[in-house]
Predict the structure.
Amino acid sequence: MLPPVLMIRNWIDEYDEKNPGWMLGHNKEDMRQIKEICYVVVTEYIRHYKKDFESIEIVGAEDIFDVKWKGYRLRGKKDLRFKIAGKKWIMETKTSSRIDEAELQDKIAFDFQSLFYTFAEELEFGEEVLGVIYNVIRNPGHKPGAGESLRQMCSRLRREIRKKPEHFYKRWSIPYSKVDKMDFKKELKFKLDEIDNLLNGKLKVYRNEKNCVTRFKCVFLRACASGKMVGFTQSHKLFTELKEVS
């Protein structure tokens, strides 16, 4: 069932209140503009993909998995699990201001997250997963022009999306063969063993000199240069969406 637009509006309006760490540093005017753009993009997305809500059988959404495999604990959260004609798929949704289609298609073919979630789904439920629908939503980056109000800018954005929705919303269906899945499992075991050896002191951390100064300077450049972690603090926890409730 499609959510009513008023419910979508409320979700967007309340999001920063329920997630105070989101978009730190933005003033109220910035937040208002971000929310209005989000509302346009989301409502037009639902309009564009309206048939999704009629033709697919949703199995689960935002589901956390927690499974054991070869002595390791695998955890994560899948965006959407669904069936088409009785066949199971997983959908991964991403946002991006820049979409290089050729580059993205090559990456998705062996994308870790997509294959990891596919493997975890099969491991947990013992049911074959055909593959992943990779769902990309463009962050428009629109701003009001000279003499243009926020409302007028949003109306302009909505017209642009309706005129060329394929520019703002892109999807790729990536079926994974048995060989793809087998290769992934082999590589996953290598990676997990390497992490385990590192954490247990059997492997040493080495500096990656190639990524010190690229488009964005590495935040650990000074630590690598000095060999000390003075001035560095652990300010937040990673993957708070997987936080266990006690």
